[in-house]
Structure formats: structure tokens, C-alpha cells
Amino acid sequence: MGTAALLRAAGVGIGDEVIVPAFGNVEVAEAVRTAGASPVFADIDPMTYCLDRAAVAAAVTPRTAAVVVVHRFGRPAGLGPFLAFGESRGLLVLEHRDAGGVEEASDEEIALRRARAAYLDRKLTGVRTPEGAVGHTYQQYVVRVPGNGRPDRDAFARAIRAKGVECRVPVKTPVHRMPEFLRRVSLPETERAAAETLALPVEASLTKRDMRRMVAACNALGGLLQPAC
What we know:
This protein has helices at 3-9, 26-34, 53-59, 79-89, 107-123, 150-162, 188-196, 208-222; strands at residues 17-21, 38-42, 64-71, 92-97, 141-144, 197-200. The protein is α/β, with parallel strands linked by helices. The chain has two domains: 3-97, Aspartate Aminotransferase, domain 2 (3-Layer(aba) Sandwich), CATH 3.40.640; 107-222, Aspartate Aminotransferase, domain 1, CATH 3.90.1150. The strands form two sheets. It has a four-stranded parallel β-sheet with strand order 2-1-3-4, sandwiched between helices. The model is unreliable at 224-229 (pLDDT under 50).
């Protein structure tokens, strides 16, 4: 059952608000609207890219009926504290898994991705590697490119692509800045993550040579992109 159907089944609809992240997953906000409710955007934890519980608490109003927690890039969001919070406030808490355009993987494929992620964790310099967690499947291996924001991240991406390394910007535009969901809301961690994050490949088809080339390309550039003083 989809998110919209689950919200409707719980009686969430017109006049209600549902707290969701703005960092990716426009389909979550769309599902809230399909159910007849209004999406309210809360900020993310800068390490996990999942909803920040304090930000969720701050976004609650008398109209809040539910929270949709998104597991991001294959990293579990840590649902327990949200369920406890929802119970204490009488709110429905739903979970959504961010597929990120990646097909369902086998246990062997997940193990290979984890091995590649561990290799990158050890070898990469000049970028901030992702925070690991129990159950992380690394649907995307997302790093932070330090610097002055989007121009630095994009220049970094162009440079490593020129060296044959495939990469992608995981969230180009946060949902709260899309015309159909435009909101004047302060989400500093969401904005920063959208400007700095870059997904590097960790799929099972990569060879050891591919991995070494990726590390060499990134490390040759990463140390040059430092925050402005």
C-alpha cells in the first residue's frame, strides 16, 4: 500500500498537515497532497540526511496528523525515536524507503557495495565520507565536497567525470524550492546538503582498477576545495 493510501486509511486528509523531508523524494510530498493533506517540510540531520527529530518536533502544529520518515541512500533512519515521539504526540508515523533509482539488490550485491564503500571510507581524502550505520545497504555512496557550495561540488564532479568516473548529484533541488511545493521555510541543513553532496558509484560491476581510478581522481582534487575563510 502506498503512502497516500496509508494516510487515507488512517483518516488523514483535508485540513491535516504531514511532516516530510524536503531533501529529495518529491513523491512523498505528492502522496500527502493526494491524500488531501498539506506537506510541511522539516530539516534533516547533516550526517544521516534523514529527518532530524528536533526539527520535526519544532514543525508540529495543532493540525499535524502524521510524519513520514524516509530512509536515505540505503541508510536506515532510526525509526524507533520517531515512533516514540509519534506515540507521545498522538501522531501517525510512516516510513518510506528511498530507492534512489536503484533496483532491489541481492544479498551478494549489497555485500559487494558495502565492501566498496568500506574501501572508499579508508582511501578517500579531501571529501567527507558518509556515516555508516547498521543495516546500511549503500544504494548510493554519498560524499560531501567541502568548499563554498554548489560551484565547488559541480566543478569537482566535472573534473572526475573527465577522468572517467561516473557520479551524480543525488538531490538537485530540494522539494521546498520546487514551484509546485514552494515554501518560505528555513532548512539550512537541507540547503547545505543539496549544494555539497555527490554520489560516487559502488555497484557490484566495478573492478579494483575502477575503484583505484576513482580514489586517485577524487584525492587529486579534494584537497584543493577548501571552505572560504
